[in-house]
From TrEMBL:
PANTHER family to which the protein is assigned, alphabetical: ARGININE KINASE 1-RELATED (PTHR11547:SF38), ARGININE OR CREATINE KINASE (PTHR11547)
Keywords: ATP-binding, Kinase, Nucleotide-binding, Transferase
Protein name (database record): arginine kinase
Domain Phosphagen kinase N-terminal: from-to ranges: 13-98
Length: 363
């Protein structure tokens, strides 16, 4: 770009940003973006850019500005955005992760004592399936909006090589999206294995460019260990199975993380732990969830919300984020992932789910 073109580009960005900001402030959006992007912070940040990838405030906030029903509304286009746009990211992070202030640092990795994690539903009455996932970014690569098509291809190649070395319970096959029929994809999505295509929140954040290049899913034979490649994060490492055997599911995810970590370095910051595209996933990046059927509590939504809040849980609909519950089935997980250890995140989910089951039993 010539100097003139650069100037023109910046003027366009600033006009688009002003318009979108106006729309946001006039809307009744409940997003954390709307809550924390005050005029003062907006004015402070609107001219800033990250040093390496030149990401702007618009790159951070466009998803939440285009999707006024966002819960959060902000993504980090590259790792530097977390510091350059800290006056906006910090309060959002503090709110979502419940009190992680700019003075706090994320603790070192600690998987904890797995023997203290139990089967959450030994009689198989309530829990349909349990899942534990973490996200990882590969060192040396930016996040989605700043990735080139070659970055996607390189990461996928790197991972395909690593997958070939996975053995025992983790052994499986990698399926690139480019070689899957729509029908196969839909089946895997319906069975809760694969990510959806065309998530409007990610799309607006420029996280779906060059789709389906470089995207795919690795699955072990039993479909209990999965890795998503280049969806929202470079990697999502997932362990899941029917029932409530949390300890075993968590153990398998850890094995997978350790096996991959021997071959590739992950991006980690002193303050935020593992770095991810979305600020909700920073830190441990762990989301431990149960697909749980609680028809009685479901008809007393207030009660369910109250117990969830008490245990710092997040209640999602049957098909996950931004969906409704079908027949009293919810996807319930730990909410915060930053400022506590991996083990503490698991324990928070376990304690909460056990209480929810107890309540449902007593109704
Ligand atoms: N940007 C979306 C919102 O604000 C999703 C946020 C959290 N989920 C995620 N997959 N990162 O509602």
């Amino acid at each position: 770009m010539s100097q003139d073109q650069k100037k023109c580009h910046l003027i366009c960005v600033s006009k688009a940003l002003d318009d979108a900001y106006k729309r946001l402030t006039q809307s009744d959006s409940k997003s954390l973006l709307k809550k924390y992007l005050t005029q003062e912070i907006y004015d402070e940040l609107k001219q800033k850019q990250t040093p390496t990838f030149k990401s702007t405030l618009l790159d951070c906030v466009q998803s939440g500005m285009m999707n006024l029903d966002s819960g959060i509304g902000i993504y980090a286009p590259d790792p530097e955005a977390y510091s350059v746009f800290a006056p906006l990211f910090d309060p959002i992070i503090e709110d979502y992760h419940m009190g992680f202030t700019p003075q706090n640092s994320h603790p070192p990795l600690n998987w904890g004592n797995l023997n203290t994690l139990v089967n959450l539903d030994p009689q198989n009455k309530y829990i349909i399936s349990t899942r534990v996932r973490c996200g990882r970014s590969i060192e040396g690569y930016p996040f989605n909006p700043c990735m080139s098509e070659d970055h996607y291809i390189e990461i996928e190649k790197k991972m395909e090589n690593i997958f070939q070395g996975l053995s025992g319970e983790l052994e499986g096959t990698y399926r690139p999206l480019t070689k899957m029929t729509k029908c196969e994809q839909e089946r895997l999505i319906d069975d809760h294995y694969l990510f959806k295509e065309g998530d409007r929140f990610l799309k607006a954040a420029k996280a779906c460019r060059f789709w389906p290049t470089g995207r795919g899913i690795y699955m072990n034979k039993n479909k209990t260990f999965l890795i998503w490649v280049n969806e929202e994060d470079h990697l999502r490492i997932i362990s899941m199975e029917p029932g409530g055997n949390l300890g075993d599911i968590y153990r398998r995810m850890i094995e997978g993380v350790k096996a991959i970590e021997q071959q590739v370095s992950f991006s980690r910051s002193d303050r935020f732990g593992y770095l991810t595209f979305c600020p909700t996933n920073l830190g441990t990046t762990i989301r431990a969830s149960a697909h749980i059927k609680v028809p009685k509590l479901s008809s007393d939504k207030e009660k369910l919300e109250a117990v969830a809040e008490k245990h710092h849980l997040q209640v999602r609909g049957t098909r996950g984020e931004h969906t409704e519950s079908e027949e009293g089935v919810y996807d319930i997980s730990n909410k915060r992932r930053l400022g506590l250890t991996e083990y503490e995140a698991l324990k928070e989910m376990q304690d909460g789910i056990l209480e929810i089951i107890k309540m449902e039993d007593s109704l």
